[in-house]
């Protein structure tokens, strides 16, 4: 049996991170370079597509060169190039796609197109947590709030998704209403923790916000955060304490995650959960999920390295390795799409 190392390159430009990574054998990170556009979008309290694509165009080559330098590899060392082609901002996806095409044309490197949402499920594989199929995938990010049954590479069944806003988007909008910086998640969490520390009875009293999707039939899985976003606006307008708003917003939002995850387990009989997405960088959410895992005997896995929770090319390279090993190859004229 050959001991040849398989070296892959991942490219991620679906939204507001420009990332290139070099991966060995699908599970070892040799480099994972990320340029974040947060400061460019902060004045607008959200991602502006035109700014995002222009920034990717300016940064993609330096990020690629840095990733190759850190990994100590040359283009001729690469066995495959995995690139996010869906879903995402079309203009942003095109920039990563062009780099991948160039590498194929100039160096003959195999092309593998990757689903950005599916790639998040493989971030934990980079920390030695390779999972047996099937398992439940929980994705909580700025653009997605969804639960999947993952049967294998390119075999991901949607069980439930958001009916409106994603959880990360709701955090950003709530923060904006309260005058907190962008991105909102860390600042809302900080305010919530400070409030809980100063009010020992915070957890024992009712939330100022009603239970989300309380009338959703027990057979259905869904998320919805537009209502609580409006409720935050109203609470701030009444002059309610910012810390209390953040605390109740966070615990009410996370309760829905907990409830939907329990439903997914009950309906599928699966007890292994892989969670990822930018919102998983929150210690408060991790605590909620850890408590649920202990109560229910769940095998819960999420990236310990918060860099792997957010958009990154290493996860793209990890999934790309699985697809490459299965024999998948994509043509030079592959499309990019805003949808899965």
SSE order and pairing:
Layout: E1 7-12, E2 17-24, E3 28-36, H1 38-41, H2 49-71, E4 80-86, H3 90-107, E5 110-115, H4 116-120, E6 135-140, E7 145-152, E8 155-162, H5 167-177, H6 184-198, E9 222-223, H7 226-237, H8 242-268, E10 272-276, H9 283-296, E11 299-301, H10 313-325
Parallel strand pairs: 1-4, 4-5, 6-10, 8-9, 10-11
Antiparallel strand pairs: 1-2, 2-3, 6-7, 7-8
Please write the string of helix (H) and strand (E) elements: EEEHHEHEHEEEHHEHHEHEH
Cα-atom radius of gyration: 20 Å
Report strand %. 15-25%
The H-level CATH homologous superfamily of the largest domain, spelled out, is: ATPase, nucleotide binding domain
| Helical coverage, percent range | 40-55%
Return the structural class.
alpha/beta
**CATH C-level category of the largest domain:** Alpha Beta
Number of structural units classed as domains? 2
CATH fold call of the largest domain: Nucleotidyltransferase, domain 5
Low-confidence stretches: none
Fold and architecture overview:
This protein has 340 residues and is an alpha/beta fold. It folds into 2 domains: 7-123 and 312-325, ATPase, nucleotide binding domain (Nucleotidyltransferase, domain 5), CATH 3.30.420; 133-304, Nucleotidyltransferase, domain 5. 42% of the residues lie in helices and 20% in strands. The protein contains 10 helices and 11 strands. It has a 6-stranded mixed beta sheet with strand order 9-8-7-6-10-11. Strand 6 and strand 7 form a beta hairpin. Helix 5 (167-177) runs antiparallel to helix 8 (242-268) and helix 8 (242-268) runs parallel beside helix 9 (283-296). The protein is globular and about 60 Å long. The chain starts with 6 loop residues before the first strand and ends in a 15-residue tail after the last helix. The model has no long low-confidence stretch (mean pLDDT 97).
């Amino acid at each position: 049996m050959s001991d040849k190392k398989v070296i892959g390159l991942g490219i991620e430009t679906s939204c507001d991170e420009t990332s290139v990574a070099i991966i060995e054998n699908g599970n070892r990170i040799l480099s994972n370079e990320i340029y974040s556009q947060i400061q460019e979008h902060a004045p607008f309290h959200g991602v502006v597509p035109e700014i995002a694509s222009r920034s990717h165009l300016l940064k993609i080559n330096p990020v690629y060169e840095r990733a190759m330098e850190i990994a100590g590899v040359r283009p001729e060392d690469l066995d495959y190039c995995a690139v996010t082609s869906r879903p995402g901002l079309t203009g942003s996806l095109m920039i990563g796609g062009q780099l991948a095409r160039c590498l194929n044309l100039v160096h003959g490197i195999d092309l593998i197109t990757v689903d950005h949402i599916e790639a998040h499920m493989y971030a934990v594989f980079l920390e030695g947590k390779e999972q047996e199929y099937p398992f439940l995938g929980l994705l909580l990010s700025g653009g997605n709030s969804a639960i999947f049954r993952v049967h294998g590479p390119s075999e991901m069944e949607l069980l439930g998704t958001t009916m409106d806003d994603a959880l990360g988007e709701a955090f950003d909008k709530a923060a904006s209403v309260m005058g907190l910086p962008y991105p909102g998640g860390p600042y809302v969490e900080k305010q919530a923790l400070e409030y809980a520390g100063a009010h020992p009875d915070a957890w024992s009293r009712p939330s100022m916000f009603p239970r989300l999707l309380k009338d959703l039939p027990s057979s259905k899985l869904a998320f919805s955060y537009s209502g609580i976003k409006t409720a935050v606006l109203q609470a701030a307008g009444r002059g309610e304490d910012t810390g209390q708003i953040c605390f109740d917003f966070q615990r009410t939002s996370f309760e829905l995650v907990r409830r939907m995850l329990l439903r997914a387990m009950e309906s599928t009989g699966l007890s292994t959960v892989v969670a990822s997405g930018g919102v998983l960088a929150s210690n408060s959410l991790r605590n909620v999920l850890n408590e649920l895992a202990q109560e229910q005997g769940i095998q819960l896995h999420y990236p310990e390295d918060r860099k792997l929770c957010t958009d990154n090319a290493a996860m793209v390279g990890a999934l790309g390795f699985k697809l490459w090993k299965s024999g998948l190859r994509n043509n030079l004229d592959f499309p990019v799409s805003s949808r899965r």
